[in-house]
## 1
Amino acid sequence: MPTHIQQIARRTPTVLSALIVAVWACCSLPALAQFQAQSQGPGTADAATAIPVAVPSAVLGSAAGLAAQPGLPQRPDLGVADTVRQQQPTPLRARKFLTPSQFQRFVQESTGQLLPHFGAELFDNPLAYAADAAAPAPAEYVLGQGDEVRIQIWGAVDYAGSQTLDRNGQISLPKIGTLNLSGVQVKDLETTLRKHVATVFNNVTLNASLGKLRGITVYVVGQAQQPGTYNLSSLSTLVNAVFASGGPGANGSMRSIQLKRAGKTVTTLDLYDFIAQGDKSKDAALQPGDVIMIPPVGPRMALTGATDHGAIYELKPGTTIQNLLALGGGVPALASTQKALIESIGSDPQAPRQVQDIALTGTGLAQMLKDGDVLTLLPISHAFGNAVTLQGNVAQPLRHKWMPRMRISDVIPDREALLTPDYYKRKNQLVQAIDQSKDIKEAGSRINERVRSMVDQINWDYAVIERLNTIELRTDLIPFNLGKAVIQKDPAHNLPLHAGDVITILSSTDVRLPLERQSRLVRIEGEVAAPGVYQALPGETLPQLITRVGGLASQAYLYGTEFTRESVRKQQQQNLDIVIRRLEAQAQSANATLTANLTGDRATQAATMQQQQMAQQRAQIDKLKAMRSQGRVSLELDPDKITVTNALGQLPNLPLEDGDAILVPSLPAFVSAAGSVNNENVMIYKAGRTVGEVIKSAGLTEDAEASEAFVLRADGSVLSRRAAGFFSSFDSTKVMPGDTVIVPAKVDRESGYNFLVRALKDWTQIFSNLGIGAAAIKTLKN
């Protein structure tokens, strides 16, 4: 409470003093509440009484009713609707689709590209260039209608509140009067207020600041993309208004945008200076009622080719090629400076378009551009003037600097230059497995695969140089011996290199090497002196390898040696797939034939039998599909000729291949029988035991097909009853240790008696039908 009000209240009776205090509260408290509500935003009016004002507690009750009265009324010349409308910015308008201008279509027909206008993409996000309404006003900001001023006065008079400048630029302070602040700059606000207050009160301290800023209305006209009226923040400038309107249209100028005020041009803005250089020297603050005029576009040209800034550009008088390229940072590094093309419009009515070659040097860059020009920047050549390329199975495929008298050994100095980086990666991965226990167990079993894939075998006998024949303009291949060039430094193969040469190093995966030069890994295990994985020597055979590893062990059963080959496995698997497809086709054909021949009572009787046979055939075919070929090669050894002294001499001189596997088993003591037999257990081998004795011991089942029995011998060969020959007996053939006698089951389970009865019934029915037919014919003739 002011000091003079407290003095008057102490000198008067209680009732009168309460009345004085109540009158003061009616005048001051609502203004304080209005200030706090406006400063804290919507929803905080209830907290307005929190402003610290010295009011004696004895008079709060008397002043409570008066304090609830309305505060200072809104000035009649500045309505609430006007204030709200001015402070709300114009909503963002949807960007319109720009129809290509006639010049854009002209350039498109010439270059095949629809080029945009330079800087047009910046207008896709107008809010990015909007004025920040929350930013503090600059010191030169001029107060006007709608601006809010927050004032605090204490001393001889106390006041705290917010005042909004009315249409006349005035505010009204209690007990001080009306003050005109229109046209006052922010830096002079407190000084102006002190002068007015000092005319009424002395010993007063005053603080003033800006609250909410007013909105201003400007007009965008001319060739704007979205002309119209815009309500902007009072802090907005010409640049903000241009971006708010979406910028110039397809035919609007970006280089001579005018700001008009009171019929006069305040400034002319060149947006190219702002976009390319950040120059805002021609920008100006907006005032209410300003008009922004975007005139029609001036002369235009197009830039295309080897540049990242291909677009349609607006020209000013005297614009040179250098001035234009400076907007994008100068001459592009990937553009050729020796030649560029300018397509211009001449004066010849028959052929108005002309082409000119220029160099992007001093004279060419100084050439002035004209309306309608199309400047095409040509790319630089991709040729290397001093490079030799090394590629293929090498440590570092890259380009090397070419030097005079350079040779192959300068690019590939030693063997290490041919070791690819993948070798070290694969080697390091050996100890980076997730499941180390599993990899430790499989390390030995996968040694063939690991060694084979660790490094690609280099073709030391052949490498090639690719060289451009500049006379015939074709590529010549110059082969050389890599080993002699790198290791022996033979001048006949250590060829001189030319600039632009490409050296290619080949591996075994690129060109298949002769068998003797291939890296052949063979696994040998079982009853040999030193089982393991060996690299076969050139031309080495099976008996030679066994001899090299130390020969056979004492328990070796050479007749049962398992020799598997990867190439054979693949061929066997292909043959098995062919057999399966043929069996499926034959089964379908047989079922179709049987169905067509079943008529009358036989159709119903044989339907069940046919279904059973089809199910059995499908089961057998499914078993065949599940089989996988092992690639075993039968060595076809004669067991009677194998002795301890000449065992290896009975092995065939079979050359070894990569991936071969040899397993020499120990001497088994059993033979076995399988298939349609009663006893599938193994039987102890006895010298001189025959196939017939094994079948007799095992016993045949009812569905056994004894005529199709065969023996799967320990050496991988098969002996069948039909292959035994006319003069030899299958049953009297001696079995060897590890042999297996297999008796297949019958496919057609119909007995001979049933077949005979069914055939007689069919023939009886045929004769009966013939007799009836003959009688009918005779009756018709009579």
## 2
Amino acid sequence: MRPKLKRYGTKLISLFLSSALLLSAVACSTGGDSSLADIPSNSSAKGRYVEEEFSLPGGDGNIPLSLDQTGDKLRLTSSEGIFDSSDNGKTWEKVAFEAEAPETFSSPAAWGTDGSAVFTTSDDSGKSRYWLMDKSRKKRELVLNLPENETFTDGVLLSGSDDKSGAPEDSSEDSASSAVETSVASGSSAVPENSIQKFSFLHDGSLLGLDQNGVLYHIDPETGSFLHTLEATGTYNQYIDFVLTTDTLLVRSYDGVDLFHLTDWTLKERDSVLEDFLNSSRQSTGNPEATVQTNVSSSGNVFLTGDILLFSDRQDDSIYLCSQNGVYRHILGGSSIEQVINGALNTLSDPTFHVQKILKLSDDSFTLLGWNETDESHKLLNYLYDPNMSAVPEKELKAYAFSDSTELRQAIAMYQKANPDIYINLELALSGSDAMTVSDALRTLNTNIMAGKGPDVIFLDGMPVQNYLQKGLLTEIGDLVKEVEDSDGLFENILSAYKTDEGYYAVPTRFVLPILDADKESLSSVHDLASLADAVDKLRKEHPDQKSVTGLTDAASLLKALYPANSPAWFQTDGTLKQDALSEFLQQAKRIFDTNLPDEDGGDPQDGLGYASVSFGKNGMAMGTELTSGNSLISLENFSSIGGLPSLVSVNDKMENYGYAPQPGQAGNVFLPAGVVGINAKSSQQEEAKAFVKFLLSSEVQAIDQGLGMPVNKKTFEQLCQIKDSSLGGIAVISSDSSYSINLTFRKPTEEEYDVLRETVEGLEIPATQDTIILDAVLQSGQAYLEGKLELNDAVQEILKKVALYLSE
């Protein structure tokens, strides 16, 4: 039995696929340095690769399956047929095939240099079938006797049964809504088919095929027999990708790259330079498994993508590596790896763009096929060397943030693509690569700002925004705010979170809505934190065996969930905390904590909770999963994406007589500002900084819906409310003892439900406090109090002292 990778787990839940479901997020690698720090900003060096996007052939529904080179042409295999390009992808011509050619294809597919091909199709039962087509375009089936799929030997839960005998008490029949739900009994499991994930032709016309078990087969195309079988050794015992040069086969595993002689199939010594490069990626992610992941497109076809993609140039036997940091070149046995394309200056740095295939062409350009997660579309990009363009952008704009985010990275990539003369150098203070604390980061930032060495643009999430306003460290940006307001409209109530009498100095580009999702009786009875504690107590008495009322089983999680809707009530005008308000918060939080879990001794509070696995649409912000799984009776969540509304209304349909409202607390109508941005008043690049901030508020960037927050741009808000049914996704739940399962397909919200969201957003008034140091002080001492390790007064005094010391610095 081959060891199974942890990324697959011990159970696979049957999931509803959305039009661009990512089975797991592609890790952001740092293999190689994409920084421009080693090149002087006034460098006169010329020449760099310039990105250009080409249109893909076919209609809007055409799905690219593979991109290959056949002779001097690019060949694209797609759901609508086969297309050739003689100009590196600028224009395409559909290839007319005889009836012998497969009518429909599914991934994977590969082409030989002589025009022969191998295709995968699926029969009516979903079983993979393989077809060979010779250069005369005659096809025949290739029968492969693959072993059983050992990756999923614990089985896959199948949906579709009407047997609901194993369902929990609250797994009722589907409501009158259009949300679709099915429940299946325990024991309906099967091992999915093992199939080939990737094909490639060798020079002699034979085939290589990598199966789902991570075994690489050298295949005789005449008989389908396996000439050689290559199995990885090491921690996980699986190969994940391969690439060919003239005389060497490189096969990548989670532990490195094995090299085989193609003449006798013997193992070569590993390339130490290549190994070091790949190891730096694994170490930077902190996850040895975060190397190659799998994406599923709207067709359900599987593509290999990853943090680093290997490919080759058989003309000179170079090995290339493509990552978010760029494209790198290496000669096997050589002493270095050189960067050819800097990913920081183009789409490669966009964390929502996933490379599926990249080719080096005869004119030394590169053509890339990828998937854009944001707009759920395939992209064809070409990189052509321009000897007259500056090697580095002429201008550098420095940006600073505590932590990374997909939205920020994507916005920077989009801006640099539109403005190739500007490089945005993002500094992340809390990257985790050193021992930097929040206090250290703030002191360093403030020192640099006062010395005139600070960043041009500051992302203020987690920082003491009011402190920067009071000290006059930020530029007034009301002019650019008015421009966006006039063109698109902005939620003034959100944008004014930090507005002063003098104008806008810091603005949220996004916002998060803390909500309470509960049965309507509880919802109507809750109007502040004390009544929320009353409702939790009432639900506990009515459901004494419920494992958790809120689904939050530890003190820290509960305090984090309650913090946004209550923290604005704690502060006095000088920034210090009100002792009475803080004490009231901790007392009510403890009431909730004490009644949240059942009154029983021993055991893990997590034991017996249902296990939910979620599939989703564009952004992964599925909501209400704890309710559907039976893990909770109410839910305290952060509504951070309009894409989360389909899941929220669908779950509430399923729960029957459930609804949501802004989370009641010591303060009312609270929102959490996100993506807060300001411009350093001492920056020498005021106009460039303003242009970038304006871009962040534009509808183009605001359309990025990855869960950092909902857009402040009204035009974009309305656009995101116009969703396609195919983008909705769903949720699958299986209990920890496998006694029941629920599949729920999300429905499209009604216009009335979108109106409720609009009205709720327009009624928000108070920005939550997001100062990281104050939050940490409350969490540390508050957790000790909730767990009975501190008395109330001691916990309150500890918090007050920590905050007073922080404010005095």
## 3
Amino acid sequence: MAFRPLVFCSASVLALVLGGAAHAQDSSAQGPSASSDGSDVSEQDIIVTGVRASLMSAQNIKKNAINIVDSIVAEDIGKLPDNTVSDALQRVTGVQITRAAGEASSVQIRGLPNVATLINGLETFTGTSRAVSLGDIPAELVGGVDVYKTSTPDLVEGGVAGVINVRLRRPFDFSEGLQVAGGLRGIYSDQSDKTSYVGSALVSDRWQTGLGEMGLLVSVSYNRRRYQDQDAFNYVSSGDPVAIPDTVGGIYSSGDRKRTGINVAYQWRPSENLEIHADGLYTKYRNLYNNSYFIALPKAGTVTSITPYEDYDFLGESSTTTNAYTLSSMQAYLDQTQSYQGNLGVRWTSGRATISSELTYNYSKIKNRNVIVDTSFNAPSMAINYNNGGTPNVDISGVDMTDPANYTVRTLFDNHSLSTSKQWAWRNDLEYEFDGGFLKKFKIGTRYTHRSVESQATTSSGIASDGTVTLDMLSSDAYTTSPTGLVKGALGVGQYLTMNPGYLLKNTDAVRELFGQASGDRAYDPANYFADIENTYAFYGMLEYGFDIGSMPVTGTAGARVVNTVEQLVGNTVSSRENYLNVLPSINAKVGLTDNLFLRLAWGKTITRPEFSALNPLVSYSPSGDTGTQTYYGSGSGGNPDLQPIKSTAYDASLEFYPARSTSLTVAGFYRDIKGYIQTYSAPETIDGELYLISRPRNTGSGYLAGAEVAYQQFLDFLPGAFSGLGVQLNGTYSNGMTDDPINGGKQRVVNVSHWSYNAVAIYEKFGISARLAYNWRSSYVDSYNSGGTQASTIMVRPTGQLDFSASYDLTDNVTLTFNATNITDRIYHDYFKGANSDGVYSNTPRDTRTYDRTFEFGARVKF
């Protein structure tokens, strides 16, 4: 097991370095304090130059916080440790990410994706989701990120897994007045063979006026990333007596993604006890991408032979087919998102009392469009090995796959959708500090939100051609030749032809004419309309306490958050109203065993409401056609308006040792008792008289998540000369999650939860050089259940790891050169159908093989 050698190696290192740390210890050094909600952390304290100072600041936030929190601090303006917020978060103990489309696409805390995301302590979101897409927040605008693993009553509810708070900069965060900074990076991606770039700029100033001190900050970021993912796949198997996959093939997923971010922050301090602020955040996302499919249909012809697996004689390991009907498909997409957040707040202090109020407005719009055209040709001979070292291999002979005369235009899918979401939120807080005694602070507050979500879309149904049009009858710009060497050549398929994605999106009316359709976008289908109005009314009260047990100080919080949720859902054949009350108590305690050794204990209840999109009964489906003996005519996905909130009772404990300002060794244990966890399951549904395999989210009943974490970091100051610039970060997590199976009964693993994960980071900082070599690894995990077919119904992902490198050199006090490389080892993703099928028979056969870009970046930062 990859985790264990790391632990044994780490133990040897610890014996050496902790001994050295005793000599480097400076117990008089005090880091910045951290508030319980993360929104009051002073950036002027934590924004300092250098990796060492960044780690010190993050360590101080963790050490001084009341609850259990891990933080990332930007080392300087525009210098988060990684290129995106999501990438940086993967270095945090207990955090895992998944990757797609050239970036970290989702973030899980201890394997759970149910994370509440805040910006400057305020709820924010993208589209109809409940969380913000962290990739939409430019890293160049970020001052720090806090990951809260335990709750306090003043934190916004909604994170069974935890809460992520992204701290954007404000002008009073800088101790000096005028600040000007900027950066530019060029990026090369090897699989797409494309170059990209990222640029950012920040201007901030603060000044005294006759009306008090004022400050204004404006920061902008523009990110263009061109990428390519590749995938070779086996689909579900069917047939008797020996089943073979219904489809086998590969996908080139290529995209050109552009992101714009603008952040404006104004602060005004008329007097020492009054401060007013106004913030505005705008993010824009535009992704022009396409999926180029090659699809072999091994049963759409004359199957001449099937060779079964030696261990699974009911499944075919290889087959041959003559006169095989074969598809290629070009799926062209344009996804666009615009999001705005405006916030107006005031904070007033009178004696021991502090009153604050904030009014926030969020608006997000997602507009998607896609045009898909399937084309076909006949292969005289097709031989398929479904498990060629974990990847399918397809050998086609007797046809020229680059001759447009061999391709017939078959089916058109022409769809678009629009989703909008708006929210008003008003928060009020009263805090009172006591003068000594057991009670240190009392805090109460209210929060009201009104959110409206609306979604409409066309129906995803295929439009068949008359079968008389071949590609050679079209203009040469209407079709294109695919790349070659899919998943490093393992699929065995060379170049093939598809429609040109640019032509599909720019000349859609001409494409519609080929299929006898009218010009112009299709009307939204009223049956696909979905709307949700949600009001929440929250009140919280909490006490901050402190006392001594002998020479050991004990501090903590105790209180509860009470939330009433009223929801009105309207959709296709659905009209429902929900009104429920949740009482969410929590207790946090911190015991100072010594000056640098702390014990933390926490207990609390949390909820996560279902995603709005998960409540939408709309089904998106894609028919594969009646081209063989497959069980299902196609597949798709949809929502479930009957979903209920996930409820969790959390138990946490941690032991934290801080022998020096940038050195720490921490151990933590956690247990979550979970009710109604939401996972996605597939089941057959009849659509237009045909049987489809449709996946929908479902509440699972009772479950739990339990595990432990260990983390260690240190700079090796005791080493001589240049070696004293060396540092190390190591962390590892063990998690085990089980929940009820709502389809078959019994217990099953929680999806996305790896039993083991770790980070190993080597650091060097000296002589103006700053470098980090970081390796991230996670063990196997469940991707999904109930996939259908004769093979195993559970999809398992194999262990995966990624090695990244970043370095910078301070050319002058104002200019820094940078270099970054990601995915250095060129990792390959594999998942498998593994376990029992619906009849209880075990098998383990390949499903997907995926490869990703390696990226190499050169850039520069300036600051004045």
## 4
Amino acid sequence: MSGEDDAGLTPDTWNLTPTQVSGEDDAGLTPDPWNLTPTQVSGVRFQVSGEDDAGLTPDPWNLTPTQVSGKDDAGLTPDTWNLTPTLRRMLARGLGLRELPEAIKSYEDALALILTPDTWNLTPAFPYDLAFPEVFYAQVSGVRFQVSGADEPGAELTPDTRPLTPGLTPDTRSLTPELPRHGFDVVVGNPPWDRMLPADKEFFAAYEFTVLDAPTKREREAIERRIMSNPQAAAAHAEYIEEFRGVERVLDRLYTYQVVEIDGEKTIGKQDAFRAFMERNAQVLGPTGLTGVVVPSAFHANEGATGIRRLYFEQMATRCCYSFENRNKLFEIDSRFKFAPVVAARQGPTTEFPCAFYLHDDAWLFEQQRQAPLRYSLDFVRRTGGEYLSLLELRSPADAEVARICFANGVPFGQVCEQLGIRLGRELHMTDDAWRFTPTSQVLPNGVDPRDPEVAAALREQGYLVLHEGKTFHQYTDMWEARPQYLLHTQKIGRATWLQSVVFWRLALRKVASSTNERTFVTALLPAGVLTGDSTFVDQESSNHSTAYSLLLLSICCSFSYDFVARQMVSANVNLFIANRLPVPRALLTPETRHLTPARFLAHSALRLTCNHAGYAALWREQVGEAWREERAPFDWPVLKDDDARWAVRAAIDAVVAEAYGLSREQYAHVLSTFSHKSYPQAPERCLAAFDELKALGLEAFTKQHDPYWDIPLNENLPEPVIELPLPEGSGVRGQGSGAEDQGSGVRGQGSGVQGGRRGRKASVEEPTPLYAEPQLALDLGEESPPAQQVIDFAAAAERVSPRPMRKAAEVRQGYRADEAERYERVKALLAERASLSSGEVQGSLEVDVATARALLRRLVDEGLARVEGEKRGTRYVGVTQAD
């Protein structure tokens, strides 16, 4: 604003919304028409003169026309100083206040508040649409007139080129504006990564901090109910929730791509703030505009972001997507978190775009000699990501070629499960259902593993079932390193559907996994009599399909080729959104091929790898009857005696699966090279040798040669219950069956000589019905009266079950087999020699499998000869001395 005294508003300038003032002395303080682009519609931009005697007054040039008097001696009248309610809210938000103090009545008061030392650096937070009306409101946006050659002789003066005279004459006031500029040229940002959901725990913690420490959902809800009994707290909570409901209404009204439909079902996923920002960015872009954002990797991986991917890939032109791991702490968040800079142009669709994954250093973005990023075409994204358009996290062109072939020759895992009758789902929630759990240590002596088949049978006699979590099983084994921490008494289960499924063998998938683990897609066939926590997905309908189908699918899922594809989609968890889209080789699981020798070989091989202890004896007889063609004595478990024997079978499976995908030897070798193989370093060599043998012999001959039971067809009959559960009359649960000791659980195969019968399909349960009345609450916090705790008498329990698969009572009491005595003496000598042992050292020295090694080491602990130090693969068994 010029400091000349004759500055003022002339009648010629009343009808404009001035935003800029010419600095020329002869301009008479008129708006500069050459750069006329209004940027504010309401409010005041305060300016402070640099002169010593300057007062702090509003800059009238930035007031809207309605705030300026129409008189020749225009000035700010008392009416223009009053703050409107809308502007009061804007100013309050800009100052970080809920509302302005009542004492603030006028602009002058607001100015004084803004310019106090505490708020000097703050400015009113005007909405974007008012700050940039020329972008958001095309009809009121201004015009920037351009002068081209106006001073040149003979130049034609058109409305677009003729100069405007100072003071804006009537001729210049009648100029017709050009079409407005629709949108921003560039929108950049790092939008919030939070989820737009209420956090009840944090809200109630403001009233009672103990709510954060409540061990169960029931106890937490009891505290919340007590807080909500206070009317003020209840009103505050209602207001808090309404804020989020209001946001939801805004999202529903303003946005189209936050939730979309696929196959008639809406995509699921909690509302992420970054998704709303990304769609808003697209809305405010000009026709040739670009947007660049830094967003979580959920953008390219999660189901909830499907709509945003549709927008950015199909309606816009994505220019790049580079995914970083936060290992170098580029952001002050967890180092495992992944994020991606994404750039897209408004005009689409996308044809192809560069992308890279698992980057660590942001300097990569600016390096001249960096490794060239991959280029994903929209067609490739559709083939590998399906209708969800999720991106595979590939690292190299070789990765991309393998993925392309696997998806081209595969059928989605979810579709295969549906065809076979397998339905994976979650059972118990580790927090919400914690009231159902009994710590294993309260029932079993120290060191006794509830997964041991003899122990598990004794527990069932007392009404207890074992709770498996993801860390308690691994590929082809239910006896992984971590022992189950909890048991469940049947009186606390309360759901008929759980107890109806628990009497069968069930396929389980570990939920918690990482693409950097030795193996990512971890599946196993769990024995009957176990339930699972929320770190596991387990088959909910195992009674309605053949167990052979579970074994067949298990063998494929444990292969390196299948796991390789899974690793390109998994970050920290394997959820069903990811699992259901993984490709299963089409050639192995069609109804036309399931009865052929290759499929038979896969199911029988998975059976041999799974039957690691007597608890799987009934499974063996269900599948192949009394047939036993192993090197070991009949029904001496495990079926395969050591890691070499197991990997001979696993390598053959792996070769068959790789060949079914259509991989070349070079491509298969690349797949193997991406795994660490630290648990069995010879695996790549053995797998490639099996692949070469397969190519030389042909598929039919190879699978016959590697399956001792090739002439026994798959048992495609529906299974019988495996165990008995002590349940009340009228529960509706089929608990009477073969059990581990039942000899009649075989099948009748055509020409196989395997005895047994076929049962009819049982009716499915439509509604879950409780088996017991809800237990009475002992305390207001939700504590229940549990069944009486007792230490199991294993000898007495063993006498009540059939002796066929069980050892003699004396052996059960000791928990160890008599034929292990010699091995145990060798382990004791080894411990005395080395002072500490690991499972791997025992396996190597005694030439035993991992299950046998762990049993021997547990015996050292049980007898007080060793103590456990470390966890998982770092576990060591340290000898106990007299000094200890």
